[in-house]
């Protein structure tokens, strides 16, 4: 029974202990409250593999979340660019200086000196008579005056201003513009990586659905065939030409087969839910799969031309097991020696000469992503070095400042033309403005920039080392997926041949039992062997389809095929 469940359980995704098969349709259910924006599904949704992949790429919630990272990257680019645009600020301040700050002032420096001018009554009389009078000076002893605390300004003060600054030169800013574009590319490649994972998951779930559908239909045919044999045996027993034990053996076998069919049906319903989950499809939407297993197997079989043709020393060929005395005909123009070398090369973990010449590491999104990370690391290193460059900024400001003894007087906003009642100017708001350049030249930062450059250089070297590790990993995945697919195809050919043999044995056993020259035990044994061969065949079929997906992912073709 464990083998019977294998086909339905193999496609469970990471972290999900659920089967990966699927049925053609489900009974429509009521719309759930949480899906108010989606109508209840009443019709089957035709679904090919390409349609399933397209739907998943557009609607899978995890992909939608990943695409938000692209929008974040674009916003980050705008943020960096904004630093090079004019920066305009407007400010306004009000202050109530309820206790004015005082400063000491030395008034002795302004008065009480060493001399003074004298004016006598005779000088006044001479001046009144029109005579010229020369005034004299006398020395006055200086008296020391201590400094006094004086408060400057008024209690209420306010100011408003507008300032503009424009970055003229900054090495870090120029490098940041380049890094922003590369960062956006990195976000796009991360989204593509997530899409590849979704394509892989949906493809495996879809293939598992096809296998489950075929196996479920086969179980139904087995039940029908066994019902026919049981009916005929029962009639023979009633006629006195068979034993009751023969009927009971068939009944036991039929009961086991029905239970297996029921279990497969329930597991298939669960696997359809897994397919919908991988697609991001509502669970109440019924689906109708339109692709066939035969087309998928043909696609997988065609890969033999590029994987190397199996020979008598390595297993079966494309057409399955041949007769024992004869060797299968080669399916390509390669010599047997070249085929043997290719097989040995694949099994040793390397790549054949033809594939090595055509394999492009850039087909793998991981390699392209690492290249982008390397570019970012190089820009980060340049940015650290640019910290030693000067920074030049142009600035300009214009505003007004005012003061008064009370708040009401402060908001009077009296300008230069304002006059008091006595005719004196009483302006309380004054304008100011300035333009200038700000130049900053880093001189010494305690070797901080030196160590930042060292860190950036080490990070760049780490990524460069990662390329070799990634190449080796890709080579291993390539050889592993190639060998796994070859083995899976050989096993499938073998299981197909076993299935044909088991089916023939079961057919002959039924005929012999019907004609009275065979035993009931022989029929039961043949039917049991047939079901085991069927289970093994569909397990091998699923293994081939999964190996095909893994092979396409290893060569970087999975995403391109999904985009067709």
TrEMBL record:
GO terms for cellular component: cell outer membrane; efflux pump complex. Belongs to the outer membrane factor (OMF) (TC 1.B.17) family. Keywords: Cell outer membrane, Membrane, Signal, Transmembrane, Transmembrane beta strand, Transport. Pfam families: OEP. One of its GO terms (molecular function) is porin activity. Residues 321-349 are annotated as: Disordered. InterPro entries: OMP_efflux, TolC-like. The keyword Transport applies. This is TolC family protein. Residues 1-25 form the signal peptide.
